[in-house]
């Protein structure tokens, strides 16, 4: 046989054998159950990378849990000494865990009066009335027509940095270190943390003589509660924003807990009773600061008088 022809045949035979080996290996891998499981568990580029916010994640592997919690002090028409004290305390927060912010009424206050390095979020009534419609804005805001509650929802739903945000009104006083209070709830996955929720009796109620209709929970259970201090998830804020933009409305004290209650994936958690000194709507007699419970919340604290007593505005 011609040596050249023999060499070509051997080369072709070698190629065929290698090809058959590759085919055999691919067949084995395709039948390997572990290999199949690995391919199914690997997310594709188009797969949602941030699942439901209430799902617990490993803090070492999730970038989401590394984002800070926003702590927003809400200052409305006036700046009192209680709010100033809170500002000074928030300036000392650990910024690797929390981001302090100030949401202030730009129609009533000048930013320069606040005298702090904490970043500001300005809110104005007219743009929010135009954004939500005047009727929705007024029903949701309540008797004082403050832009605070509407702006909280719009801001939290639109931002991308924070998974949760605390909102603290200027007349909420914590007799202790805010960092200690916040630490109790830092690992909580709840969409809403608040206190004082109650089930409304008789459907659409007229509690508090505010008489706003409440379109939330008409076919289920309606709740209401004081949200002078509360923590909300971005996901819940998106639900509430969509509810308001649909033209439905109601007072924020009804809408917020009711929307959470009627959303299956929304979880609610109360502020611990041990964290509360006094928290409510009613007027209180003056209380001496020295008798205040340590590490506890007080609301409403409108001002300090000269005898350093806590006093509810009459």
Give a structural overview.
The chain is an alpha/beta fold and 314 residues long. 33% of the residues lie in helices and 18% in strands. Strand 1, helix 3 and strand 2 form a beta-alpha-beta unit. Helix 4 crosses helix 5 and helix 6 crosses helix 8. It is globular.
Annotation keywords:
314 residues, alpha/beta, seven-stranded mixed beta sheet, three-stranded mixed beta sheet, 33% helix, globular, disordered C terminus
**Rg (CA only):** 29 Å
Average pLDDT score: 77
Structural class: alpha/beta
Put simply, the count of helices is 9
- What oligomeric state do the depicted chains represent? single chain
E-strand count: 15
Low-confidence stretches: 1-10, 28-66, 306-314
Strand order of the largest sheet: 3-2-1-4-9-6-10
Summarize the main sheet: 7 strands, mixed
Please sum up the structure shown.
The protein is of the alpha/beta class and 314 residues long. It has helices at residues 3-30, 33-41, 81-90, 125-132, 134-141, 148-158, 178-183, 234-245, 252-262; strands at residues 69-75, 98-105, 120-123, 164-169, 173-174, 192-194, 198-199, 223-224, 229-233, 268-270, 276-279, 287-288, 297-299, 303-304, 309-311.
Write the layout of secondary structure elements.
Elements: H1 3-30, H2 33-41, E1 69-75, H3 81-90, E2 98-105, E3 120-123, H4 125-132, H5 134-141, H6 148-158, E4 164-169, E5 173-174, H7 178-183, E6 192-194, E7 198-199, E8 223-224, E9 229-233, H8 234-245, H9 252-262, E10 268-270, E11 276-279, E12 287-288, E13 297-299, E14 303-304, E15 309-311
Parallel strand pairs: 1-2, 1-4, 2-3, 6-10, 11-13
Antiparallel strand pairs: 4-9, 5-13, 6-9, 7-8, 12-15, 14-15
Helix pairs in contact: 4-5, 6-8
């Amino acid at each position: 046989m011609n040596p050249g022809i023999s060499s070509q045949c051997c080369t072709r035979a070698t190629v065929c054998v290698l090809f058959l080996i590759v085919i055999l290996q691919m067949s084995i891998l395709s039948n390997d159950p572990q290999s199949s499981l690995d391919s199914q568990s690997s997310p594709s580029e188009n797969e949602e990378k941030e699942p439901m916010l209430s799902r617990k994640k490993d803090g070492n592997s999730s970038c989401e849990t590394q984002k800070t919690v926003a702590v927003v002090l809400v200052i409305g028409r006036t700046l009192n000494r209680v709010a100033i004290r809170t500002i000074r305390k928030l300036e000392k927060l650990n910024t690797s865990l929390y981001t302090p912010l100030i949401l202030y009424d730009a129609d009533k206050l000048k930013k320069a009066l606040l005298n702090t390095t904490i970043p500001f979020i300005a809110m104005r009534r007219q743009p929010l009335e135009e954004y939500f419609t005047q009727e929705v804005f007024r029903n949701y805001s309540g008797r004082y027509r403050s832009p605070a509650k509407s702006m909280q929802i719009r801001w939290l739903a639109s931002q991308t940095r924070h998974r949760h945000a605390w909102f603290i009104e200027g007349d909420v006083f914590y007799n202790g270190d805010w960092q200690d209070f916040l630490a109790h709830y830092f690992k909580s996955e709840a969409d809403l943390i608040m206190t004082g929720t109650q089930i409304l009796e008789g459907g659409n109620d007229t509690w508090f003589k505010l008489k706003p209709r409440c379109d939330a929970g008409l076919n289920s259970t309606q709740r209401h509660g004081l949200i002078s201090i509360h923590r909300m998830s971005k996901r819940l804020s998106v639900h509430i924003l969509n509810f308001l933009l649909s033209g439905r409305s109601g007072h924020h004290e009804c809408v917020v807990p009711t929307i959470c209650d009627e959303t299956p994936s929304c979880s609610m958690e109360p502020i611990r009773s041990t964290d509360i000194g006094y928290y409510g709507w009613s007027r209180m007699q003056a209380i001496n600061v020295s008798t205040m419970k340590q590490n506890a919340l007080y609301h409403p604290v409108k001002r300090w008088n000269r005898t350093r007593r806590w006093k509810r505005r009459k």
